[in-house]
Description:
The protein has one domain: Alpha-Beta Plaits. Helices cover 27% and strands 32% of the residues. The strands form 2 sheets. Strands 3, 4, 5, 6 and 7 form a 5-stranded antiparallel beta sheet that branches. It has a 3-stranded antiparallel beta sheet with strand order 1-2-8. The radius of gyration is 18 Å and the shape is globular. The chain is of the alpha+beta class. Strand 5 (68-74) and strand 6 (77-91) form a beta hairpin.
Amino acid sequence: MSDLAGAAPGPSESGPGGALPGLRRQDGAPEDAVVVLGTVPDALLAKRMAHVLVEESLVACAQVGAAMTSMYLWQGNLEGGEEVPLTLKTTAAALPALYRRYCDLHPYEVPEFLVLGVAAGSIPYLDWVRDSVAVPPAGPRAARG
């Protein structure tokens, strides 16, 4: 993790000035922020899941999007239906516990759970995400899996 304010331009930095003032690069450390994308069948469940995941400090922020139409192949058949997108902000260290809880709350046999790395972000926001997420201690369930 490195602050980019005043940093000399490097090959992975963007922008005409090179340095990205007020931003921090992330390098895959456990405390680094990540974004999780998912969908659920309806807005009521999306709001419930968002509430539970924030309340349990597994995510710093949960955004519930507007309903959209999804088209996909499931067990060889073309399916389509309305789904509600969820965008979750958490840390890499919290992913195992978040995934377990997400699957516990989700009705799908194969729920969408896509983890996107965050290359860089504003320093105060990345700090807020890190400070807002509590990583549960590894318990017997985690040790077996």
